[in-house]
Design goal:
heterodimer; A: alpha+beta; Immunoglobulin-like; 2 domains; five-stranded mixed β-sheet; 10 strands; elongated; B: mainly alpha; 21 helices; 2 strands; globular
């Protein structure tokens, strides 16, 4: 071999090796599958979750739906990776009563493991940071809104929800949860017996009702509509039937309803 | 796995313990003594007052029931001869070699399965049939639940019976799933895999099974005592308020916790101390690693569950008020104790099933296990993090909202070691040609099911999303994807894989395939439907629901019937093949782990001469030749 030929045979750069790797038929088809599956999961996120989840009557419900969509999109590349690798293997399947010939004998690829671990950590970190920001935003909004909020006491009692409106409205009790539009509300929740979980579905908030330990949750209805109130914690015989309804109303309609309940406007 | 030479030939005396008491004891004598103990205890605790009425003196009735259930367990163990060995040791007359050989079931045929037998292979088969029985009962209860939920307003059962169905289904399945892989395969296969003659403590091994066995009638008695109205979580104060059936639940868990502690310590000691010569930690089959980490995780987890049950029992019998807010206690304390066990328990269930699949992949793809170290780090990482995440089940409880963030972080971090598990399986499969036998199909099913279970777990670990999803059917679907779709699929694949070694016959392939597709399609239909109603707002554990959830619930019920049919066919295949299946060769899959080097029936002490290991058990692949 001449000196000139030796000079021509330089090692490929990492970029060239990666480019060559991507051009391999097995790799390119797997990458194509990965894009396909990623796209499917992104479409599922964008199309299905907003249809499955109830129309939000509060910012909390809307942000929950948005979060489900974003988390699914964050997860989509992971789904793409797993399903494309599985598809690639499935398409190469071997049938018969004898084992296939041995495959490639390498048992580790440090770069592959490191790359995967870093990518998985980045995606997890993204989800963690997004979740923490959402949680913090909700907490700040809750503190802000609680300042001039209407406080409704909620009592869970096997198997009825009772709502006690503020003294300023006459302190009347109701088994229906009606709320005025664009008025923040703090639910002050307690149980008279066992654990319950207060869940006004369309408002997107939930917290347990515990015996002698008050819990609170704040929300602000921003859209007119019906509310389904359910119990999300198994509480005994008629747990399934511990539900009631209510509505987010205009202020005028709410005030009229308050008067029909024996209360007065604040 | 390569073996070089052999050493330590075993010497076996001829058993002839004709006059020994141990020859006369069996399951029948256990039942008789257990019932006598239970009856006498009940009578002693309730006293001799002729006017005594259970409904008049609820505390005393609870005391009598709890004491008699626990004494049933002790009595059964006395009656079957579990304490003869320790007793003889205490009085200085240890069992003779002949008696020990008799205890090992040598030459006793099918009778040894009904005795206190110390042979790990017998214990493995006992666990297998115990698990099958529990899954059958739990599955039947699930079918009744789904039938009731097929349409809104269904009145198949009353709300009281429905709640009991939910509770009994939950706890039966949890117990069955905890032992579904470590019980049969951890006992039968694992000692052979590591080149041991038996478990480290053979008598404790038998004890772990028979203690678990005594829990089964106790759990069944709940049905006749008014049921379990609390679900398997048994939250206080509902559990304190519940009727006498709750006592059966408490005692079941107390007895079961003893069984898992004994089994966990024994399996861990066996793997640490009894690996054959040359089996260094990096040559241990990955199933053994996964199963050992799983049981080691159970050892600290289950005592807290046991403690919570003892405290609930004390609240019910002596009004101690641990969990009663009126008496200064707290329901949150119970929730903590429960979930400190409850979340590690998910991984106690999951890891052995996943490890079984990892054992399967290299064999059926004919490639080395990809990054053994990543698999071990993945298992260890999951186990380590799983003890730091329990309060994500309590985001909505109202307890300490400022700690929701830290628990959210620890929970979501589990995605990283879980990702390594996926990487190991996919890396092993990469560019191989998977041999599409039943065990390998289980690997593909696992990848899909665990993917869905894992991603939905990410939503539930996130506080704002859990704010909506907690307590809904979405949660039910999520944990079924992980526990049933991943762990049970792994265990069934493990059964298909090791069936030839455990029975000497091949599992009926056609029936296996039919059952596989019925189960997997039905499973996804059932639980995808449940995801939809959960996202729409249907709470879990409800006997009835609003009209708007009707279609998805009907679809889910159809899926459930498909699963039910699939499991009936699988059960038929297991039973039929056991007697009539094709005779299995010694190593039908061409695997390299040690269990495939011994014949069927496996000799009493497994190996004539203990093997010596010189390489890892995954020496497949072109470069390896």
């Amino acid at each position: 071999m001449s000196e000139h030929e030796q000079f021509d045979k330089v090692e490929p750069t990492p970029g060239e090796r990666f480019s060559k790797f991507l051009k391999r038929k097995d790799v390119s088809s797997t990458v194509a599958w990965a894009f396909f599956y990623t796209l499917v999961f992104v479409l599922v996120a964008l199309y299905l979750y907003p249809r499955w989840m109830p129309k939000g009557l509060s910012n909390e419900m809307r942000s929950t739906t948005r979060l489900m969509v974003i988390f699914t999109i964050i997860s989509a590349p992971v789904c793409g990776f797993v399903l494309s690798m599985a598809t690639h293997s499935f398409l190469r399947r071997h049938k018969g009563d004898t084992p296939p010939a041995d495959g490639p004998g390498f048992s580790a690829n440090r770069l592959g493991v490191a790359t995967f671990s870093v990518m998985a950590s980045i995606l997890t970190l993204t989800a963690v940071i997004y979740g923490l920001v959402e949680m913090n935003t909700a907490a700040e909004a809750s503190v802000r809104e609680a300042k001039d909020a209407m406080v409704v006491k909620v009592v869970g009692n096997q198997w009825v929800w009772t709502f006690e409106y503020p003294e300023s409205m006459g302190g009347f009790k109701s088994e229906v949860l009606n709320l005025p539009l664009n008025k923040a509300v703090v639910f002050d929740i307690v149980s008279a017996d066992v654990n319950h979980s207060f869940w006004p579905v369309q408002l997107g908030v939930k917290v347990d009702a515990n015996r002698l330990a008050h819990t609170t949750v704040t929300t602000k209805p921003i859209k007119l509509g019906e509310i389904d109130v359910k119990c999300a914690e198994l509480c005994g015989l008629y747990h399934a039937y511990m539900e009631t309804t209510g509505a987010v109303m205009t202020t005028d309609d709410f005030n009229k309803w308050v008067i029909t309940q024996g209360g007065h406007t604040a | 796995m390569t073996t070089l030479d052999h050493h330590t030939k075993s010497a076996r005396p001829v058993p002839n313990p004709q006059k020994s008491l141990i020859t006369k004891l069996n399951m029948g004598t256990g039942l008789i003594v257990g019932i006598i103990f239970a009856y006498v205890t009940y009578k002693l605790v309730r006293g001799s007052n002729p006017d005594w009425e259970p409904t008049q003196d609820i505390n005393n009735h609870n005391q009598a029931l709890i004491a008699s259930m626990l004494m049933w367990s002790v009595g059964f163990l006395v009656g079957i001869g579990a304490f003869i060995g320790p007793w003889r040791w205490m009085i200085g007359k240890d069992l003779t070699a002949e008696e020990q050989l008799y205890l090992a079931g040598d030459g006793q045929g099918i009778k040894r399965y009904f005795k206190y037998c110390t042979d790990h292979k017998v214990v493995g088969i006992q666990y297998l049939w115990g698990v099958i029985a529990m899954l059958a009962v739990g599955g039947t209860l699930a079918m009744m639940i789904r039938t009731n939920l097929a349409m809104p307003g269904a009145k198949l059962v009353t709300p009281s019976i429905y709640n009991s169905l939910v509770g009994l289904h939950g706890i039966t399945m949890i117990i069955a799933m905890i032992v579904v892989a470590t019980g049969p395969f951890g006992n039968y296969i694992m000692p052979i895999m590591i080149g041991a003659r038996d478990m480290a403590f053979p008598r404790l091994n038998a004890l772990s099974w028979w203690v678990l066995f005594t829990a089964i009638p106790v759990l069944c008695s709940a049905w006749f005592l008014g049921g379990i109205p609390t679900g398997w979580t048994a939250y206080a104060p509902l559990s304190v308020q519940a009727g006498p059936g709750m006592n059966a639940f408490l005692c079941t868990i107390i007895i079961f916790a003893v069984s898992t502690a004994v089994a966990g310590a024994n399996i861990t000691a066996t793997v640490v101390g009894m690996r054959t010569k040359g089996m260094t930690w990096n040559r241990v089959p990955i199933f053994v690693i996964g199963a050992t980490i799983s049981v080691a995780l159970a050892v600290p987890a289950f005592p807290t569950f046991m403690l919570s049950m003892i405290q609930t029992a004390m609240d019910r019998t002596f009004q101690t008020g641990f969990f009663d807010a009126n008496a200064g206690g707290s329901g949150w304390l119970y929730a903590h104790l429960f979930w400190i066990m409850g979340h590690p328990e998910v991984y106690v269930i999951l890891l052995p099933g996943v490890a079984a699949l990892m054992e399967i992949v290299p064999v059926f793809v004919r490639r080395p296990l990809f990054s053994y170290t990543s698999a071990v780090v993945g298992f260890a990482g999951i186990a380590g993090l799983s003890v730091l995440v329990w309060a994500h089940h309590m985001y909505m409880s109202g307890w300490m909202p400022m700690l929701n963030g830290p628990f959210m972080v620890t929970t979501e971090m589990i995605s990283v070691p879980t990702g390594l598990i996926f990487l190991v399986i996919l890396g092993t499969m990469w560019n191989g040609r998977p041999w599409m036998k039943l065990p390998m199909l289980g690997v593909f099913a696992f990848l899909w099911n665990m993917l869905i279970g894992g991603i939905t777990g990410l939503y539930l670990s996130d506080v704002p999303a859990d704010n909506y999803l907690h307590g809904s059917m979405y949660v039910t679907a999520h944990f079924h994807y992980t526990l049933m779709g991943a762990a049970l699929t792994g265990a069934v694949a493990g059964l298909a894989y090791w069936y030839p070694k455990m029975t000497g016959r091949m599992l009926n392939e056609r029936a296996g395939y039919i059952s596989f597709w019925l189960i997997q399609i039905g499973f996804n239909v059932l639980f995808l439907g449940m995801f939809i109603v959960g996202a729409e707002g249907q709470p879990r554990r409800v006997a009835d629901y609003a009209q708007e959830y009707g279609t998805a619930n009907m679809v889910s019920t159809i899926g459930a019937y498909s699963i039910g049919l699939g499991f009936i066919i699988l059960l038929w295949a297991v039973v039929h093949s056991w007697r009539h299946g094709k005779i299995a060769p010694m190593n039908p899959w061409g695997a390299k782990t040690l269990e495939w080097t011994v014949p069927y029936p496996v000799p009493l002490e497994n190996f004539d001469e203990l093997p010596v290991i010189t390489s890892d058990p995954y020496g497949y692949g072109k470069a390896a030749h």
